[in-house]
Every structure is written in structure tokens, then in C-alpha cells.
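Journal club side-thread
Mid-discussion, someone asked how the predicted structure for our own chain would compare to the paper's figures. Pasting it here so we can look after the session.
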Amino acid sequence: MIPSLRKQFDFRLVLVLSVFVLSAGMFAASAADVISGPRSGKWAHEESAIAPNERVTWGRLSNGMRYALLPHAAVPGRVSMRLVVLTGSMDEKDDELGIAHFTEHMCFRGTREFPYHEMNGFFHKLGMEYGSDVNAITTFDHTAYMLEYRDNNPDLLHEGLRLFRNIADGVLFDPAFIEKERGVILSEMRTRDGIASRQSMAAFPVVYQGLNFPQRIPKGTAESIRTVSRKNFLQFYERGYRPDLMILVAAGDFDVAEMTRQLTAILGPIKKPDALIPVREEGKLDTTRSLRAGLFKITDIGSVAATVASVAPLPRGPETREMNLDRLRRGFAMSLLRGRISSAIPDSGGGDASFDTLLGYDTAQAMVMVSGENWQHGLLALDQVVRSTYERGFEQREIDQLRRRLTSLLQHMAEQAPVLDPGVLSENLAESIVTHSVFVGYEEDYRRLQEVLKTLTPKNMLEAYRAAWDLDRMAFNLAGDVHIEGGASEILKVVQKYRKGGLRYLRPNTRRETDFELKKWGKPTEVVEERDVPELGARLFRFGNNVRLNYVFSRSEPGIVYASVRVGTGLLDMPGGQPALKEFGIQTLLASGTTHFTNEKLGEVIEDHLLGFSLDVDDHDAFTFRGTAGTENVDAFLGVVTDFLYKPIFETFALRSEKMKAFLGRSQARIGMGEGMRELTNHLFKGDPRFTWATFSNYMGMSVSDVRSWLREPLTRGYLEATIVGDISEENVINLVSRSLGSLAPRAATKRLDLPPPPPRITAFPGFKRIEFVGEKHLGLVTGTWPVEERLEVGDKASLNVLAKILELRIREEVRDNRGLAYSPAVTFTPYNGFPKFSLMQAMIDCGPSEAHQIARIVEEIAGKIAAEGVGESEFIGSRGILSGQVKSALKENEFLLHLLQRAQERPETIDESIALQAGLIATVTIEDVNRWAKKILSPKNTYTAAIVPKQFIGIFQTGGP
């Protein structure tokens, strides 16, 4: 996935995903079976010549439980712990489908020492929140329970180990809670049962024909979840939850000796069963030398996912260094294939390719999305690209282009390794264990990746690619809105007939790396004012042309810099009656190019030099350019932004193109929950174009002059405040800003508006509203909205955030835990920037359509009860503790610092708010503060609920059939 990185992403997430994608081979070098796999009780490095990371302490208890401890003090106080159970959905019997995942849920429904009614209080005592700090995951081959500590207090770590002990041998499986949790799991299944999920899972039985795990999807089936009994639970728990199938994994700021002492004392007494570990019935991969095909129909979505794949068992034997390097080369080869698919298959929604290892099998896979009537084009073009590449291989310039893109990224990733969050480390340490691969550590992973990158040649790339694909044993699958007489057999006939026609060589599209240097927009100006904010480690500057700069030096993410440039007034002065402006007016600017760069060249600069780039109006009160870059490329971000502001261009052809994209996007999204959410916004803010969605007539009526009249003045003259946080020196920052933004024509000294913007207001009547959409007939959503229409001080915002968390926990307890009607209720409090007298508290609860009205009434009742009676002491303390912990962690993150500082000179009071937040503002909130706000905003006359449900008798997801 690395080569297709574009520019609007969370870099830290990509950092983790990148390592997974490129390291997939080294994390599964030997076949997973009872003798040599993770369930043997052996560590992978005990069977390999590869040395494990020397910082990890590997150990075993007398009952067979193992532990792996990785001390890592780079994030003070943070500890991440996992209890890994080597039992998953593959270990279920036919009448137990979904029970592994169901058991995971039941571990939080009460244990021997942690009754259910005390469990949430226990988490709050630890300063944790279920779902973020406390969580679990069930896969085909294992289940993992996670605790994320912000405080490494030994007593708290001890309590976490006690919880793991109770999960290991003390789950109660209370019949009453089993019944309640059925509904929760059915809600989770419904929530995650989307189009993309169905299309992805539909290929499994075809790709892995003959194996059992495609019939053992972790979520199970609705029928099995409804019928599984307590007896089933007890039998499964006894078989699979045993110490010789468990590993305690921990990473972070802790003392290894003390952790070892505690886990030995707490987990050591777990009794090991006399029975042998059950042998899994894995099935046998169909390796006949023939093509195979599958078809999965989803009506009324218009598109179809075309997939081709080749699968082979992993070689048996110990993991070797050369095996890992070879598998990395296969991964890089598939990255090159991904680029070819994207450029060689027109009339598609882009494509993807990957080389992964799943449950002891290597899988080369490629996919493209096309319209249903165009299925032959998509599938055959995909097969053509795969076979053409097999025949001809890759060109040196393709490899060089891949090497350029990845070398810089890998360098940044290597620099991050010493300061990675413990959660990332524990996750990957656990991943290496369950895949029975040697954990060598991130530094060695990066070194291997860089080594392989340097040695890529057309010859070894072709060898790696051919090793990944067996052209005579490929699987072809279609999943989507397509009707084919004859079904899968017809697909095979089409493919076989096409293959007889020979190959047409597809020449790849490659280019040289785009150089960048700052242009000359005007005379650079110097700093004329500066100020220190020592509490935040920040410095504030004003340049001679009134450009403002807020700067913080931070090496918490070495080599990485986050930046934003806020210009003008955004939605505050958006013309009335033109809601389409915010939907594609800004995209028109981006697509028009700049003075020094065409649109195409601009895209190349961004792709080659930046890790993230975007322009949006999400802040409401400004047009905001956002960027992430390596230290050496901050000039590219500042230069690109400056070129947009110098003499902004608004091309008619760009408007037409963006208008058509927006039109097609809305047309394709005219069905489904997304359309229901748009209707909700229009219901709440009816008549306000700043927040409502445009109609197609709005689209058609917009001209390029409308875009120009909105954007040109604020971009060229408007108030401008830049914020830069990260690993870059003050001298360098000031020099770059002086030569870029500081060389523009003078900017407004303050943010000016011709007229005060009318404040937002909810135009709907209080009470309930039913909103219907055409689409996913199994999905529903309930929302609750509570507007706050007065100016808020910093303490008020803190109190309202605590109130939102209390409301969320109340709704969660009643709707999810007590009634099993939903999976993940959430409540947020959101100030509307630029509108000081307007903010919203909003709840969202996933549900089934038939329960939506009932849940809406429950939400109204809960809000009304809190307004009338106030909140309880324990829930207040727990919610305040959760938020305090979250803020404490966020303040260590550069992106959060940037968010806090980006209005520091426009609104100096935000500095005081940020300092107060850092000083422990949340802890100063009192229960009286919360109750005062609850009485004021949660009353029935200020409560707006809605049920967003599909229209009866109309809906997609009729599936199956030819």
C-alpha cells in the first residue's frame, strides 16, 4: 500500500500499516501447524537461526503460559498489555459458529472477581474507557484482550493482570447476560455488514477453495448467534482457554523484574488441563491445476469488485533470513503491479494489489472496481495486466520510481522507531507470536526493507513476481451488482476464451522525480514581532507583511513536521443560497493549478515531496491548508500553499470537471445511510447553505465566477496564520516562511468581515423526526441533538465534554448493555469555530431499523432524567477521569498541539485555554458545573431526536443467485 500513498492521511496510522504490508512475509515464515506453529508452545526463534530482538524478555510459566516483555520508556508512563489466546473462529464446531467472538464479549460481562456491575467502575478506576483503552479482537486463529495504560502505577498494572487472570479461567457466562449480549453482537454484525465487507468476504471461499476457515468467519452467522447455548460456551471455553494457549505481551514504561514477579504470582496458578491441545480441522487447499471462479450478487449498488488471486501453502521448515528477503521482494513486486493496474485499466474506480500471508498460505491478489455492466472489461483487463507482467516483467524506471518513493518514507519510519507508542510495539510483538515469526524489532525491519530496496533489479523483481503467481491455478471472483447467465461457469468461459487471444504488452506509466525549489513571489519580509508561550513551548511571530507564525519545536516524532495555514474567513462569509460552493468550489481551486505549476505537475510535487496535503473549510472560520512533511520537505508545503495564495487561478474546465465528479459522487451515493445523514443535516439546519447539502440544481447553477468571488479576496489579502509543529529548527522555519508566505503581498492585520455572520441555529422543532433513505435495508441510526446557544468560557467547554461522556455512558448502559439494541453508542460535544454562541452535543446510536423508534424514546428519557435529577457522583468521577487521561495523552501529540495553537494570534484567549487544559482543566470541573449544564440543555424542549431508517420494502443487499 505504500506506493499508492496519496496525501490526506494520518501519518502515524500509515506508519503502522506500512510496516505490516511490507513485513507480512517476515511475520509468517513457517507453516502454522500444531508441531511447529504458535500452538506448539515454542517461540519462533527457538526453531530458527534468526536472532530475536535482544530487548524482549521471553519466558514460560510452569503451567505452559508464556510471556514476552518489551521495556520501552520513550513515552513516559505508557504501558500496553495484551493477553493473547491462541483460539479463534477456526476452533469452532459446526454448531458454535461465532462463539469465539461471543466469548470475547462475555469476558466483559462478569468474571469470578469482577462482577459485571462493578466492571465499568473498575475500568474508570484505572482511568480507562471500554472500547478505546480496554478492547479485544477475535480473528480466525486467536483472540487478544488489550489494556492501554496512561499511568504505569504498579498497583494499576497489578489490577490489569488480575483482570487477565479472570478472563483466563474465571468467566461466569451468566445466562441473563448471554441473552443481553446476543443483541449487542447482532447489532455489531449489522453495523459492520456493509457493501465493502460483503464484497471482500465473498471472494474467500473461491480464493481458498478446500480450506475450512472461509466458513469460520469470526462474526459467525445470525442464526448461530441466536441459538448458541451456555453449554456451548462452557465447552468452547474449556477447550480453548487454557494456559498453554495463552501469552502475556507487554510493552512500555515498566520494570521487567517487577512485571515478571507479578504475572508469575497472578497467572502462574491457572491450572493446565490434562487433555491435549485440540487439533484444528483446517481442510486442504484445492491445488488442482485449473482456474476457478465465483459470483456474489449485491443488487442495486451499480458497481462490481473484480478480483483475481493465486494461493500457495507456505514452505515448511524454519524461518530463514533469505526467505524473508525474498518475500519482501514479492511484496514490492505487487506494489509495482498496483501502479500498473491504476494506470492501465481505464473506466475503473482505481485498483489494488497485495501479497499477504493468511493462516499459513501466501496470497497474491489484485482487484479493480468497475460498473456492473462493465464486468468483463474489469476482470479481463485485470487478468491481462497480471499475465503481461508475468511475461515481460518490470522496467528499471518503474523500480527506480518505487525506490524513490519508499526510501524517504522508510527513513522517516526508522527515525520514529525509538519513540513509537507502546501500543504499536505490543501489537506487533503479539502479531509476530500468533504468526510464529521471529520478532527482530522495528530497527531491523527497516534495515531489511532498505536493504531490499537498494538491491531491486528487473531480474529479481520478475523472479519474485513469478513466484507469487501461478497463472494456471488462479481464482476469479465478481462481487456486486451484476447478473450473469450461467454464473461462475460463464465467468470461466469468458476468461478462458480471452486467454486464447494472446497477450498485449501494457507499457507502464513512469516519470522522473519532480524537483522543487521555492519560487520568487515578492520580497521576503523579516520578523517584526515575537512572543514566547513557555507553558506550551511555543513561539509566536509576525512578519513584515502581517503573516503570523506559531511554532513549536518537538522531536516526539523525529524527522516529521505538521503544518497548517489558515487563511480568510471560510464559511463566515460564504454567499447565501450556494451550498455547492463548499462541496466542490475548493476542489476547483486545487484542480486549476497555480502560477508556477499545472494541475498535473502540482500533483507530482505533492506526491514526491509531501506525506500529506489538503485544503478544506472544516474549521468553519477559515480556509485551511494542512500538511505533513519530512523536515527536509517543509519548503515544498510552504511553497505549494504560497503559490495558491499568490495569484489564485480558477479555470472553467476545472470547475466543470469537479462539478461532474461531485455530481457523479452524489448520484452514486443517492442510496444508503450517507443520504440519510445528509437529510438529517438539512432537517436540522434547513435554509442555511453553510451547513446544508446542495441539490443537483445548485450544482448546475454554479459558475466559476461564483467560486472566484468567494475565494479570491481572502486568499490574496485575507488574514493568514500559519502553525508549524515538529522536528525543524526555529532558524529554518523563519527562513522558509520569510521566503514563502512572508514574500506575499501584505495581508489583513486582523480577520475582517463586512457584516457579522448570522449565527447558526437549529431550525427544526424539538422532538422526534423520522428520516427515510433508500438503501441498506438492515441498517438504522438514531441521533440526538442538543444545541448550546450562548458564549462559552473554557470551563464551560470542559464541563460540557464531561456531560457528553456521562450521557454516552448512560446511553451505552441502557441501550447496549441492558437491552442489547446497539453496538457502539457515542456522544460528542462540538464547538462551532467562528460562531462563539453556537455549539452542539450530539449522540449517534447504530441500530436495526425496527428498534430505531424505541431507542429514540430511550435517548429522550435518559436526557430528560439527567436534566431533571442531575448526574451521580461515581459516574461523574469516572467520566472526568477518562477525559483527563485522554487529554494527558493528546497533549504529547504534535498534531494536537498544532490544533491548540492554530488560532493563537487571531484569538489570544485560546492560548489561555490551552494552558489551562495542560494544567489539568478537566480535573477542575465540578459535579455542580455539569448539573447546571445538564438542566439547561438536556431538557425536552431542547432535545431533537431522529431515526434514520430505510424505506420499507425498498433496499439493497438482496444477495446470492447468478
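Post-session note: Residues 794-818 form the longest helix (25 residues).
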